[in-house]
Write a structure and sequence with these properties.
The protein is of the alpha/beta class. It has a single domain, classed as NAD(P)-binding Rossmann-like Domain (Rossmann fold, 3-Layer(aba) Sandwich). It has five helices and seven strands; from the N terminus they run H-E-H-E-E-E-E-H-E-H-E-H. It has a five-stranded parallel β-sheet, sandwiched between helices. Strands 3-4 form a two-stranded antiparallel sheet. A hairpin with a 2-residue loop joins strand 3 and strand 4. Helix 1 crosses helix 5 and helix 3 runs parallel beside helix 4.
């Protein structure tokens, strides 16, 4: 399934590396995905909330399993988080631009998880929305 189809058919995103800094990609993901109607779970132990949404310390604290997990940190930090990941095999893992490297992708594939690499979620949603307007 491609990125547009995944966004069309899923409802929730956990954002590992979400940030309260408004100029960061982690903040923009939380804000934009929330604003267009997705259930968003920001994950970052540094903040109690981001964009007025409760922030979680880790995936284990979430009230439900998310359909998607976005790694919005540096590849080095993402690798540490990925190694500790225990998720459903139906969950999609997103590595946006500048948030992945070859080592990270190899590890994810060894874990048999569904990976989308070098894909911007905001751009993907805009593409999905453009397709809806054409139909």
């Amino acid at each position: 399934m491609n990125a547009v189809e995944i966004m069309k058919n899923t409802k929730s995103f956990a954002i590992i590396g979400a940030s309260a800094k408004e100029d960061s990609y982690g903040y923009k993901l939380v804000k934009n995905l929330t604003d267009v109607g997705y259930k968003v779970y920001p994950i970052n132990p540094k903040y109690p909330e981001i964009y007025e949404i409760k922030t979680y310390q880790g995936l284990g604290e979430l009230p439900e399993a998310p359909d998607n997990i976005v790694f919005a940190m540096s590849p080095h930090n993402n690798l540490k988080s990925l190694e500790n990941l225990n998720i459903e095999k139906t969950t999609y893992i997103w590595f946006p631009p500048e948030c992945w490297n070859d080592e990270l992708i190899v590890k994810a594939l060894e874990m048999n998880i569904q990976v989308l690499q070098d894909v911007c979620l905001i751009g993907t949603y805009l593409e999905l929305n453009a397709m809806k307007q054409i139909i």
